[in-house]
Amino acid sequence: MATKMDVDTETFEAREDPVNVKKNTSKTKENPLKLIWSAGEDIKKISAQYESQLDHFSKLPNEFAQIKECLPMVQSTFSIVEDLDGKILLEDTIYPLTTKLKDEATALQTTFGELSKEVEKTNRKKSILDCYRIILSTSPTLCRVEIGMQELLGSLENIFTTAKYNTPSELKGAIDKMSEVKSSVSDEDLKKTGEAKANFTQHNASGATGYQNHFDGQGHHINAGGGTIVYHYNGTKP
C-alpha cells in the first residue's frame, strides 16, 4: 500500500492498452496520492482562515457557517483517502476523480483567499457578506463557496464508490446537509454591486444639479464646478 511518504516527487506511468503502448509511452500520470494530499492542504488553509480571520466576525453568512461545521469531517476524510492504494487510484475510472478533486479544492481555496484579501483591504470594517458580494461581482471566475464545497464532497464520495470502498457515513450526511444550503448572495445583488464598483466621472456645470445613486462603491470622481450634487445612498454613507 502506498503511503503519504510517496507523494513528494513521484510520478506514475500511465497504464496503457498493449496495442497503444508505443503510441503513448510518453504519457505520465501525476501521483494521485500527491494530488489528494495537495487538495487536503487547500482545505487546511481554509480551516486556518476561519481561525485567524473569519471567526473574529460576530456573524457569518449561512454558507460559511455550514462549511465551517463540516471542515473537520472533510479533513478526516482526506486522511482516509490518502491511505488508499495508489495503484487503485491510478485506474482510468478513478484517476480523473483525483484530478477533479484537486481542481475543486484549489477553486474553493482561491475564493476564500480572495475573500481574505478583501476583508483586510477594508480593515475588517465591512461584513463578510459585503466582502463576499464584492469579490463575486468583480471576479466572475470565483466559485460560490457552498457550490464549491458541494462539488468537492461529491468528488470524495465518487472516489470511494468507484474504488469500491465504503463511503463514510459522516460524508454522506455532510453531502445531504450542504445540498440544502442556499447562497446569501443573489444574482441581483451581484449586478448591483458590479454596477456600483464601476468607475465613472460626473461633471456638473455651474448652476446644474446632478443626481447620483450610490451602492457603497469606490472610485467615483465628481467634478461639481459650481453646481449641486444630490446623492441617493443605497449603502453605507461615507
Description:
This protein has 2 domains: 4-186; 199-233, no CATH class. Helices cover 52% and strands 10% of the residues. It contains 8 helices and 6 strands; from the N terminus they run E-E-H-H-H-H-H-H-H-H-E-E-E-E. Helix 1 (32-52) packs antiparallel against helix 2 (62-82), helix 4 packs antiparallel against helix 6 (145-162) and helix 5 (128-138) crosses helix 8. The radius of gyration is 24 Å and the shape is elongated. Mean pLDDT is 79; it is low at 1-26, 198-225 and 228-238.
Short note summarizing the structure:
The chain has 238 residues and is mainly alpha-helical.
How does the SSE layout of this entry go?
Layout: E1 11-13, E2 28-30, H1 32-52, H2 62-82, H3 86-89, H4 95-121, H5 128-138, H6 145-162, H7 169-178, H8 187-197, E3 201-203, E4 209-214, E5 221-223, E6 228-233
Low-confidence stretches are 1-26, 198-225, 228-238
Strand residues, percent? 5-15%
Total helix count? 8
Distance between the termini: 61 Å
What average pLDDT do the residues reach? Answer: 79
Q: Quaternary state, please?
A: single chain
Biggest pleated-sheet summary: 2 strands, antiparallel
Overall shape: it is elongated
Share of helix among residues?
40-55%
Name the structural class.
mainly alpha
Number of strands: 6
Count of spatially separate domains: 2
